[in-house]
Design a protein that fits this description.
The protein has 17 helices and 17 strands. Strands 10, 11, 12, 13, 14, 15, 16 and 17 form an 8-stranded antiparallel beta sheet that branches. A 5-stranded antiparallel beta sheet has the order 5-6-9-7-8. The chain has about 525 residues and is α+β, with helices and mostly antiparallel strands. It binds flavin-adenine dinucleotide. Flavin-adenine dinucleotide binds next to strand 3, helix 5 and strand 9.
Length: about 525
């Protein structure tokens, strides 16, 4: 239980040090940071908005002196995993979005160092302004999400450097002691080599900062993929559901054959694709709360959506892409029912269809828009288009005049995101579990399998619901737990977990969590940084 006197004391000290405008009281903090797509409500003690690393050091010093837990967020858009909410009640949020400088770039080495408030859009504009030919590591969460926050969650996208924490090469962070962490190599004067080489020397300490609660990260160096001479998307369709196993084996073969000429490859079920191209047909929901199979099949047929749709990208010099296209065709053609390559066609088609009044809202135009959105993301252009998914089951859509914010707009979303070994029978067992459990809780089973490598998929299943409906919210939260439990029994475990279910992963006597606890006690004995985040 937090001591109210100590909190007042700390708030006074923070106001004096940071200025009153940088301190939000509990009511203001709750209103600004409380709404969460998972429907879970946390009690937030206050919020702080630092502008510099010195401010962050002062925040940590005052938190420590008064034993007040703080919860850092970069832009706080962790939609589907907790939004800006802390894991435990009573934390003071530290909103780092005001630290939004691109600190430096090393064009020769393809590195950029950014502060936590630098979003996909800020980096994109910076690269454009300075004519630097690199790709932004974009995600479906859109232009206003932080690069640092996403990497610290070990998020991923589908540009060539899809594993966003994998691309992080160096960090600066404020430790619970108030001391600024810099790596051993940079303290020895090797700043450049430190940024060029991820692992440094000695134990890999920076791994503790990702999915951890050991420090507040104030700068991060990220390796950027060079913008390729040519980017080309390929799309494929599998007509019948039982073609899944063959498609999985073929995807693995493509990845093994092409290496870095291809990025990640996504495989989506029909309902997942429909969620991108048709408004939710609320009137046709069945008694169990989702679209009956025959309705889903009818919509899929009308929109020419197959049982499984694949999306991948080819990157490189024109001749490399040409050769890669041949390899993709040789491997995929016998395994799928539809295969197409699309350099810029989707954008052109989208523009043309969008300009014809009667066609603008038709299914063809919607498909072209979805393809165009996919192309934008593959090419490292930040886009809000994928974000509309969060609004699919809400009773209202996003406002055209405001940037999308699913937490603010009462969207209901929890991401179930387990790892699935890339074996055809594993994929089948996994898909069966998701279909069955989602249906029994009235949640549409929207499945994506993203290739993290030729060995492993991460699947992302957005559990969508109407957050204004308490019954639906309760069912979605129960569905999430049921999926975690059923997945665990079959060996499918999450790569990332929502804040409200952190106990599901950490409440065990596993030796790894024991080690994490021992480290946490040693580094943060008062438990002031992000208590409960990936720690017991
Ligand atoms: C439709 C949709 C599509 C999405 N697509 C993707 C996708 O393609 N890929 C993906 O990865 N995610 C995706 N997301 C999930 C999520 O919205 C993103 O991962 C988003 O980038 C996370 O929010 P953020 O960048 O604001 O990070 P934040 O919310 O700022 O940070 C996330 C967490 O990291 C920790 N943290 C953040 N900053 C710091 C710091 N400086 N120091 C210490 N700890 C810190 C905190 O615990 C925080 O809660 C999607 C969400 C939606 C709704």
């Amino acid at each position: 239980m937090m001591d109210a006197g100590k909190l007042s004391e700390a708030l006074r000290a923070w106001s004096t040090r940071l200025g009153e405008r940088a301190v939000l009281d509990s009511a203001a903090a709750q209103q600004r940071y409380g709404p969460c797509t998972t429907g879970v409500e946390r009690s937030i003690a206050a919020a702080l908005r630092p502008r510099s690393v010195d401010d962050v050091v002062a925040i940590v010093d005052i938190a420590r002196e008064n034993t007040i837990p703080v919860y850092p967020v970069s832009t706080g858009h962790n939609w589907g995993y907790g939004s800006a909410n802390p894991v435990t009640d009573g934390c003071v949020i530290v909103d780092l979005s005001g630290l939004d400088r691109v600190v430096n770039t090393d064009v020769a080495l393809g590195l950029v160092t950014v502060e936590p408030g630098v979003t996909q859009q800020i980096l994109y504009d910076y690269l454009e302004r300075n004519r630097l030919a690199f790709l932004v590591p974009v995600t479906g969460a859109g232009p206003h999400c932080s690069l640092v926050g996403n990497a610290l969650e070990r998020g991923y996208g589908i540009t060539p450097y899809a594993d966003h924490f994998g691309a992080v090469t160096a960090m600066e962070a404020v430790l619970p002691s108030g001391r600024i962490y810099r790596s051993a190599l940079s303290e020895l004067g090797g700043g450049t080599v430190d940024r060029a080489f991820k692992w440094g020397i000695g134990p890999y300490v920076e791994g503790l900062f990702a999915q951890g609660s050991f420090a507040i990260v104030t700068q991060m160096t990220i390796a950027l993929a060079p913008r390729p001479e040519r980017t080309e998307a390929f799309f494929f369709g599998v007509a019948e559901d039982d073609g899944l196993e063959t498609a999985v084996a073929a995807i693995q073969q493509v990845l093994r054959s092409l290496g870095s000429a291809t990025g990640s490859i996504n495989l989506m079920n029909a309902r997942r694709v429909l969620a991108m191209i048709v408004p939710y047909p609320r009137a046709r929901v069945g008694r169990d709360g989702i679209l009956p199979p025959e309705v889903a099949a009818e919509l899929a047929a009308r929109n020419r959506v197959m049982s499984w749709t694949g999306l991948g990208a080819l990157y490189g010099k024109a001749e490399v892409v040409r050769a890669a296209r041949r390899v993709v065709r040789d491997i995929l053609k016998p395994a799928v029912n539809r295969l197409g390559f699309s350099p810029q066609t989707a954008s052109r088609v989208n523009r043309v269809l969008g300009s014809i009044p009667h066609v603008r809202d038709g299914s063809l135009a919607r498909r072209a828009r979805a393809l165009d959105a996919a192309l934008q993301i593959i090419s490292g252009r930040p886009s809000q288009v994928a974000l509309a998914l969060a609004y699919w089951r809400s009773s209202f859509g996003p406002s055209p005049d405001r940037e999308m914010d699913p937490a603010r707009d009462s969207c209901g979303l929890i991401w179930y995101s387990p790892l699935v070994p890339k074996k055809p029978d594993n994929a089948r067992r996994y898909v069966n579990i998701v279909n069955e459990i989602c249906a029994s809780y009235g949640i549409e089973p929207l499945i994506t399998l993203t290739s993290l490598s030729d060995r492993c998929f991460d699947s992302s299943v957005p559990l969508l619901f109407d957050r204004r409906d308490a019954n639906q919210t309760e069912r979605a939260q129960s569905c999430y737990r049921a999926l975690l439990d059923a997945g665990r029994r079959q060996g499918f475990l999450p790569y990332r977990i929502s804040n409200h279910a952190m106990d599901w992963i950490t409440h065990s006597d596993a030796s790894s969590w024991e080690l994490v606890s021992a480290l946490k006690t040693a580094i943060d004995p008062l438990g002031i940084i992000a208590p409960g985040r990936y720690a017991r």
